[in-house]
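Let us work through a complete example step by step.
Step 1: write down the sequence.
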Amino acid sequence: MLHYPAASPADPDDADHGEPAVPFLERYLARIGYAGPVAPTLDVLAALQAAHIAAIPFEAIDALTGAGIDIGAAAVDAKLIGQRRGGYCFEQNGLFLRVLLAIGFNAEGLLGRVRWMLPDDAPPTPRTHMVVRVTIAGRPWLADVGFGAAVPPQPLAMDSEEPQPTRHESYRIVRHGPEWQVAALIEGEWRTLYRLENVAPPAIDYELGNWYTSAHPDSHFRHQLIAARTTAEARYGLRDNRLTTRLTDGRIDRRYLTADEIGRALAEIFLLPVRPHWRAAIERAATTEIVG
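Step 2: predict the structure and record it as tokens.
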């Protein structure tokens, strides 16, 4: 089950040799390289969000290899902090929510239906995307650190339907019936990312969404090697053997990689500790013909 305590158990390695466990929040801040103020303010929220998406990559390699994904607090901390791995939305935003609660933010999780690259009249998709809603001085903000290469790089006001510029794309959040529709302006076109429900779900709904995303045969994470990372200067996205770099000045570079180059990209661009058992998935990705 998914829980959100103010602090979570340390990784087993932290207890080795009788050394005292490092507090959860301190370990997280060191992981993302953040040494600024720690207070429940909008500036701090924005700084943490930017540091998080630059330091902890989006990836779902454990779903691709069949290793499975555990979104419990101890497992997420061990993987994303202790092992310096990345993760996808349930891991990333679950961790980020616990961090915000530990700092003292008024925050809660929300679930949404991914609409990325789908026409508006496409059938409903399952609730498989988690985000965080943060209320500061009575104003709600969307904080999302787990949406791959289109992740919002800063908090987005949820009470305005006007376009919100960021150092990458502009975003907008509009009401769509009882839901919010989040879209990004990409190459001159507004593209819907996901639709969010207004009610914070119980923990079991995250578990169900995580099972579908990590284990259902229709989940694209079961068939594609996907990684993403966003810095102040660029977005990096890997989809099987295609590496896309989008610079903030508008330049876009796309390259197709060999298996060895994929391995190096995962290590050098996405900052992942590449495991030997990933090799079979990497070799399959290197031979994939990407459409679209």
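Step 3: interpret the result. Residues 234 and 247 are 4 Å apart (CA to CA).
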